[in-house]
Amino acid sequence: MAVAAVDHRGRPASRASTGRWRSARFIIAVEIAERFSFFGVSFNLITYLTGPLGEGIAEAASAINIWNGVAQLLPLLGAAVADSWLGRFRSILLASVIYILALAMLALSTLLSSRSDKCGDANMPCPSPSGLQMAAFYTSLYMVGLAQAGHKPCVQAFGADQFDQSDPREAASRSSFFNWWYFSISAGTAIMLVFLSYVQDNIGWGLSFGILCAMMAFSLVVFLLGTRTYRYYYVFGSKQCRPVATACEAFTSWRSSWRKQKLTNPLLATSTLESRSHTKDEEQEVVITHAYLLEEAKVVLRLLPIWSTCLVYAVTFSQTSTFFTKQASTLDRRVGHRLQVPPAAMQSFICITVVVLLPLYDRALVPLARRYTGLSSGITMLQRIGTGMVLSLLSMVVAALVETRRLQVVMDAGLADLPDVPIPMSLWWMLPQYVLVGAAEVFTMVGLQEFFYDQVSDKLRSLGLALYLSIFGIGNFISSGLISGIDRATTTRGQSWISNNLNRGHLDYFYWIIAALSSLDLLLYVFFAVTFKYKTKTSVIVTRIY
């Protein structure tokens, strides 16, 4: 197999004028805007669903988890299309256009409502939404998920492609790329979440979606400005450079061969020597293709134990944009006499934690660990992921303890039946659980991205990152199933743990269940991580970057 690095005109790429951090900055810029757009829609979505759209808390949380699940699984399809047909650059362009259309539709869907953006409390109940508004909203919401399908698995792989793995300096830069990639996204998102949560809670949802649409359009222009500096990789030497297309061709060849064998009458067969030779060549090509597909399937299958044991981590992470936000909305959110912290803005502390810890990890922890392990990365990818899973488990334990404390304050203050009255308990009690989630991201999120990018073949890098995203897709479906199942089971016994009135619910019990599942999952992860064998670095011929 050979890999050609070319410029935008298909000529051999020049090291002096293409790739490296100069090109990566354009790609990071468009990814920051994409993360703004996706998180700008999702981070406070439960407030919109339970407010202007009038859904119950359990129903809204389940709907968000299902949408997130679909949005995180669709990248598997997007990666297959990118790796087999469109290529990463064109896939990013197409996905960006879909993003712009989806966000514009979201903004317009808010104009179909006769509701106030501030309705949903005892003083201003919300009228029922129209069928047209619900259809427009959910159509545009799932279009955002479709846009992410083409964008997310390609843009990070395309960014990492800007560093030549055969050059020692650029290979080292590519290792740091994943850290600084996540740092840049988290730093920008922390600022944007605070700003957007204020706009959504105090001005209007339509304006916030419009801002995201404008940002995505601007980022597309920035991405196109870097076209001349990018390195584009082309894998050639066989049809195997297009794995999905090859799989389809293999199936077609097998079906054609099977039909010929079934229809051919051996008594009437008068095949010439040439036709036999041609058939033999076709059969040999099918055998080679099948062997290739089998080898690629083995590469993916060996990752499944790690993939499956990270699902509960995704369940934990999914609570930050749903129940954490609803918890925060019940607490005393005052800062000073006039300022009140929007509940969704607390998620910015996850990003702030990432911004603080990632440089420390990259510049302090890695060099220190390198002295003892001899590894250029300090610790292995699986050790990094496991450390984050421990922190994630601790975040659920802390969340359960804080919720227990909150319910005790509710009982002491006699506010059990007054859900709209702020509880005399400071919002900052929830800060530790957000910080622990952010610390877990530094280890597990970045580790998973690097692991699934590194442990697949060069031509399946987009698919590898899509597998990473699918962890959170399935995790959201599991979370949705847990919420629905626990809500039904506890409702039949008198009082739902996930009541619309959280003061009468028991989210602490729900968190303890997730903590218990995380403990069991961590034990399985350690077993598979210890026995996992990393991919052997195979030699790849790279067309010289001069």
C-alpha end-to-end distance? 20 Å
User: Tell me about the biggest sheet?
Assistant: 3 strands, mixed
Strand content: under 5%
Spatial ordering of strands, largest sheet: 2-1-7
How many DSSP E strands? 7
Helix content: 55-70%
Spell out the helices and strands N to C: EHHHHHHHHEHHHHHEEEHHEHHHE
Regions with little confidence, pLDDT below 50 for 5+ residues: 237-241, 243-254, 262-275, 539-544
Mean pLDDT: 80
Number of helical elements: 18
Structural class, from secondary structure content?
mainly alpha
Tell me the radius of gyration: 26 Å
- The global form is globular
Describe this protein's structure.
This protein is 69% helix and 4% strand. With 546 residues, it is mainly alpha-helical. A 3-stranded mixed sheet has the order 2-1-7, with no helix packed on it. A hairpin with a 3-residue loop joins strand 4 and strand 5 (339-340). The two termini are 20 Å apart.
Compact description:
The protein is mainly alpha-helical and 546 residues long. The chain is 69% helix and 4% strand. It has 18 helices and 7 strands.
Topology:
Elements: E1 2-6, H1 20-42, H2 45-50, H3 57-73, H4 75-86, H5 88-109, H6 131-160, H7 168-202, H8 205-225, E2 232-236, H9 243-263, H10 273-301, H11 304-308, H12 311-318, H13 323-329, E3 331-332, E4 334-335, E5 339-340, H14 348-373, H15 381-413, E6 423-426, H16 431-454, H17 461-491, H18 507-531, E7 541-542
Parallel strand pairs: 1-7, 3-6
Antiparallel strand pairs: 1-2, 4-5
